[in-house]
Hints:
About 40% of the residues lie in helices and about 15% in strands. It is built from 10 helices and 9 strands. The protein has helices at about 30-45, 80-85, 115-120, 145-155, 155-165, 170-180, 190-200, 205-220, 225-240, 245-250, and strands at about 5-10, 10-15, 50-55, 100-105, 110, 125, 130-135, 170, 185. The strands form 2 sheets. The protein has a 6-stranded mixed β-sheet, with helices on both faces. Strand 1 (about 5-10) and strand 2 form a beta hairpin. Helix 3 (about 115-120) packs across helix 4, helix 4 crosses helix 5 and helix 8 packs antiparallel against helix 9 (about 225-240). The protein is globular and about 60 Å long. The N and C termini lie far apart (about 40 Å).
Amino acid sequence: MTNVLYRSDDGIATITINRPEVRNAVDGPTAQLLQDMLDQADTDEAIDVVILTGADGTFCAGADLSAISDGRGNTVTELEPDTILGSLGPMGPTRQVMTKPVIAAVEGHAVAGGLELALWCDLRVAAQDATFGVYCRRWGVPLIDGGTVRLPRLVGHSHAMDLILTGRPVGGDEALQMGLANRLTPPGGAVAGATKLARTIAAFPQRCVRSDRRSAIEQWGQTEAEALANEVVLGMTTIRSGETREGASRFVSGEGRHGEF
């Protein structure tokens, strides 16, 4: 059985963690496969948006702690700030800088390292009965793959500290309220909802989508002046490509009037 499945259709790549016997927990080899397949999607010119999900009704239960005893444990490496990005994270792709949007389609549990995988994605579409949580709190396993960094940035410090310190479960409705989930679907509908959202994003001019996404990500490590200057540099690259002129021509010809998408 392949631990990670890859499917592409009409500009959308769907990558599925396929270890249902351990609730899609990720061991070392699976982490490497996840990174490899996300790299494949990112470099494939035919792909515009990536969906990350899990098989059989569970997103991901975190790192596979049972794999440590037989040498399949997740890789944890202490690296300097100038080398950590692009390296293999404990859960796989969590230190990668993707050039394309990634959407998590969350059914069931996204907990511990599975929560960190979901946080790494740009957007999260969750079933109403999905569960998020820092479940590793119970076992003395630290958040070591971006959880303490990305969670506060997504939901604010107060909400993040509540989840980090208590390890409590957060359901779909509360996740949507605090900004952890971007969209909710009926149970079993997360992949379909994520695919619908992916198609919406893929329909836009992609150079502009990726440029604005990159600026929004890079501004976290910049002063306001640096971020504003970087935004202009990235935006001008899009404008010079001709994509903006082409879009303006479509508008002048009558497309998109009255707010129509």
